[in-house]
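Aggregate trends can hide what the representation actually does to any particular protein. The sequence in question and its structure tokens are set out directly beneath this paragraph.
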Amino acid sequence: MKAREYKAEHFLWSVDDDGVAVLTLNRPERKNPLTFESYAEMRDLFRALVHARDCKVVIVTGAGGNFSSGGDVHEIIGPLTEMAMPALLDFTRMTGDLVKGMRGCPQPIIAALDGVCVGAGAIMAMASDLRIATARTKTAFLFTRVGLAGCDMGACAILPRQIGQGRASELLFTGRVMTADEGERWGFHNRLVEPDALLEAARDLAVSLARGPTFAHGVTKNQLNVEWDMSLDAAIEAEAQAQAICMQTNDFRRAYEAFAAKREPVFEGD
């Protein structure tokens, strides 16, 4: 797949010369809700990025001063109330597959968050690797507010690992808003910036990652995923094998040669 050639239908997508992609949820008049079609297209895109060597980092963001209001009330929630169990399970598995796609692609994903970040929007932020937000970002896992369980799209597995079991339990049981300040103090947001500096901050971080050893970044992301349910002994052995693989890359040699020559390494991801 050539990521630069991908033509998105249900969101904005671009990839620059640094290999930094920007996925923008683009229904600002309704705070960027998701639809059946946008869920499926994002799932397919993140799965395809496994094979996209021209894409090194992905920024996900929303247009118009908000990230996402989650599943569209009229286009998703209404129809779900009329579906039979097999169709409902198809839908919930599809939305879960979006998270699997985000976690499974080797590219680091940076969520640039502003304003409303709720429901499935909060899940997309959670499924990203790094989160930069503004002071006006309001994050809520709203599922109990519409009569559903808080265990949606991997929330009960991922969120406690990010902010702790007690804090995650509170948010998932109550559906209340996590303020930006709470998010930063609890480790959900990596940092807060001013709204007009949000995309610049996300891009600066993305470029720094894109210029790094991108093959090794993919290995790091994979190990962060697979070591969740490993014993310490198994994790140490898995990391030994992963690091030995990285030691055979050209980027490892480039770093050594640059250090010896007292210059900055130029990584190429191989």
About this structure: Residues 214-260 form one domain. The CA atoms of residues 26 and 227 lie 35 Å apart. The longest strand covers residues 20-25.
